[in-house]
Amino acid sequence: MTAVQIWEETIPAAKINSTAYIPTIQLDTHSNIFEKKSHCTMRLPYAPSTPPRDADPSTTEIYARIAARRHPRPLIPLDLSLLHSPPVADGWNSFLGAIRTRTILPGALLELSVCRVAVLNGAVYEWNAHAPLALKDGVTADELRAVREVEATTTDAGKEALGRSVLSEVQRAVVRYTDEMTLRVRVEEETFEDLRRVGLNEREIVELTTGVAAYNCVSRVLVALDVGENNGREMKSVEELVA
C-alpha cells in the first residue's frame, strides 16, 4: 500500500472527489505526553495537520508520506512543528523511519540509548515518549531507572556508578558510548572497542551510532522549539511508567 493509498484509505470516496474536502488528521491531544498546561506556551504555532488548500502536489505527497509512517496513529506535535518546512519534514521522516524500522540493532538497545540521550539533554518530550517503548522492548524498570539516574560516564564518578549499576555489560557499553557521543562528540578508543567486545557487529555499531546521533538531533529540536510544551516539566518517573 502506498503512502497516498493509506492517506486516502480513511477518506470516503465521495469526499475524495470533492474539491471542497480537506482530509483531517487529528492531533493526539489525549496523550499525557502532550497534555497542555495553562502556563505553557508553544514557541511556534503548529503547522496545519492537513495540507493547506493552496499546497502544491509535492507538499501534499510529503504529508501523505509522514501520515503513512505514523499510521494508524495521528501526526504528533513534532511532525506539526517540522511541517513548517515540508522538505525538512520529509527528509526527517525518511531518516528517522529508517532508524526505527529498517535496522537490526535490538530495539531494547536503541531505546535505551534514546532514553539516555533524553536524560543528558533534558528532553522531557523525548523521555516521556521513548521510556515506555524501552519498557515494551524488554528494558526492565530497574534498568530504566539506572539509565535515568546514573551520573554521566564522562566523569570518574559516573563510570564507577555505571559499574555498580544493574545494567548488563552490553547495556553499560551502550550507555558509555551514548554519553561520550552526546557530551564530548569524540569517543575514546576503549569505549568504541567495548562495543565490539560485547558482541555488536559492524552494522549494529553503525546503527547505534546513527541512532544516538539522530536522537541528539531530535532532542535539540524538541527543546529549542519546546515541542509539546514540555520544557520546565519533570520527566515521568519509572514508577509512573510501570503503574
TrEMBL record:
<protein>
    <recommendedName>
        <fullName>Carboxymuconolactone decarboxylase-like domain-containing protein</fullName>
    </recommendedName>
</protein>
<feature type="domain" description="Carboxymuconolactone decarboxylase-like">
    <location>
        <begin position="86"/>
        <end position="160"/>
    </location>
</feature>
<dbReference type="InterPro" id="IPR003779">
    <property type="entry name" value="CMD-like"/>
</dbReference>
<dbReference type="GO" id="GO:0051920">
    <property type="term" value="F:peroxiredoxin activity"/>
</dbReference>
<dbReference type="Pfam" id="PF02627">
    <property type="entry name" value="CMD"/>
</dbReference>
<dbReference type="InterPro" id="IPR029032">
    <property type="entry name" value="AhpD-like"/>
</dbReference>
